[in-house]
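Example for reference:
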Amino acid sequence: MRGVGEHGDESAQLMVQAKALVKRFGDTEAVRGVDVEVRRGEAFGFLGPNGAGKSSTMRMIGCVSPRSDGELTVLGADPDTDGPRIRARLGVVPQQDNLDGELTVRQNLQVYGRYFGLSRAHVRAKATELLDFAQLGDRENDEVESLSGGMKRRLTIARSLVNDPELLLLDEPTTGLDPQARHLLWDRLFRLKSRGVTLIITTHYMDEAEQLCDRLVVMDGGLIAAEGSPAELIARYSTREVLELRFAPGEQDGVATTLDGIAERVEVLPDRLLLYTRHGESALETAYQRGVRPVSSLVRRSTLEDVFLTLTGRTLVD
């Protein structure tokens, strides 16, 4: 099925296109002129610390918050003039579950489906399909309040699919879930992507971004600090490996100068040193040759978290 504004040309492959996009709240500029393109069928991520502008950008894409300046098209249409038609083709998973606790699991799906003007027969069949997708078929007649956090999250995602959206917006989809629930949700999202659903995700979990996102942007202070695939960003902003040397509190400060020249960059943390290098084992051997004796050592591959902290810093932003 064609989305709003599709005409079969190359531009139809762009589900979202933003140019110099701005969002102001009074004198505060939450989004300060960002350029973003999301292609059909990809999983695209927004990463950034609190206050970076991720949620404000997502709300503009979701057609629930008007832009202050710049250009924005979603499904080939302008949210300012075609908001209702665009929203009819979107699925939205908010950061906080907003299920109806007084309804059963199945009723949450069927009642929501009726908001889109779908027939009762269609939403009944769709609810059965989505219950199987979310692995909630055995709980369909239970009230929502009896579900675990992971089950509620799966139900929220299932509900967002009741209108067969081409574009699914997920705001912090696995926050607060245990590892098993997170991995089950990842599996559900992989299945959606394999069906051709385009995903836009905000997340604070770097491993989640590496697992799910084909491309992503790192936002900081309302601006885009970096853009690319996880592998591209790691190659651009970090090193192939990281050597972690742990010390007793206070000992690492005096050791840092001993390690000059061993790594491309050395970061001093309260309990350890991080040595960014292409060859962690070689760096560790050299450190021992120079008399460095850490409490423990670890050589690991560089991750998206290393990139994120390099670009945005380690200072907590409230």
Remarks:
- The longest strand covers residues 14-25.
